[in-house]
């Protein structure tokens, strides 16, 4: 999957995300112990030519938010970058972060949990073959604007009749995910602040 085909997102330029070239011009003086941008964000897991096989067992946690991919198997995603580095995610929210941070890496395949079959855990489906239901009343993971993948359009349309929302392909859903990031992050921070205030209030009693 070519990067230019995947991330034709005008908003990336608008928010000032740098071109991938600067990942290749990192100063030679920067050693492994030195935190650098964007090198510090490169996937840390060992190369795996078949990361989709037993992905939940091999990669139980999302490296970006720490959420349990076993619990969130229906929303999980997996990016298999061209250098065989796997990036296992809990949701399209964290997948959008991975793709934005790792602009120097071209994905071979991107997978999403397929909600069409009535099985647990959900199998993976390549996102190019999936239809996404966006904005339904189904719960979202790491986002208030739900985004659920289905391995076939018929299953997505059937879910839409029950739960509402709009059908979209992966490119459209990724674009929406980038747009939602600002609101999602803002709400998460406000929720954490409210929890801190409630905890402080209980301690003062």
Describe this entry's structure for a reader.
This protein is of the alpha+beta class and 205 residues long. It is 34% helix and 15% strand. The longest helix has 35 residues, at 170-204. It is globular and about 55 Å long. Residues 8-37 have low confidence and may be disordered.
Terminal-residue CA separation? 57 Å
- Kindly provide the radius of gyration, computed on alpha-carbon positions and rounded to a whole number of angstroms: 18 Å
String of helices and strands: HHHEEHEEEEHEH
Strand arrangement within the widest β-sheet reads 2-1-3-4
Q: Spans with pLDDT under 50 lasting ≥5 residues?
A: 8-37
| Relative strand content | 5-15%
Helix content estimate:
25-40%
Descriptive key words:
single chain; 205 residues; alpha+beta; 4-stranded antiparallel sheet; 3-stranded antiparallel sheet
Short description:
The chain is an alpha+beta fold and 205 residues long.
SSE inventory with pairings:
Layout: H1 3-6, H2 10-14, H3 55-58, E1 77-81, E2 86-89, H4 92-101, E3 107-113, E4 124-126, E5 131-134, E6 147-150, H5 153-163, E7 166-168, H6 170-204
Antiparallel strand pairs: 1-2, 1-3, 3-4, 5-6, 5-7
């Amino acid at each position: 999957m070519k990067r230019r085909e995947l991330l034709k997102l005008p908003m990336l330029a608008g928010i000032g995300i740098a071109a991938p070239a600067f990942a290749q011009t990192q100063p030679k003086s920067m050693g492994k112990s030195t935190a650098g941008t964007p090198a510090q964000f490169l996937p840390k897991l060992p190369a795996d030519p078949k990361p989709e096989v037993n992905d939940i067992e091999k990669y139980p946690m999302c490296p970006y938010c720490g959420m349990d991919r076993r619990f969130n198997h229906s929303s999980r995603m997996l990016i298999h970058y061209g250098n065989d580095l796997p990036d296992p995610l809990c949701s399209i929210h964290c997948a959008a972060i991975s793709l934005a941070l790792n602009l120097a890496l071209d994905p071979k395949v991107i997978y999403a949990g397929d909600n069409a079959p009535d099985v647990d855990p959900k199998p993976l489906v390549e996102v190019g073959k999936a239809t996404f239901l966006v904005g339904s009343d189904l719960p979202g993971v790491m986002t208030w604007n739900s985004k659920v993948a289905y391995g076939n359009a018929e299953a997505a349309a059937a879910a839409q009749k029950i739960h509402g929302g709009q059908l979209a392909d992966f490119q459209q859903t990724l674009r929406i995910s980038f747009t939602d990031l600002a609101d999602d992050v803002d709400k998460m921070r406000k929720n954490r602040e409210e929890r801190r205030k409630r905890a402080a209030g209980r301690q003062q009693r």
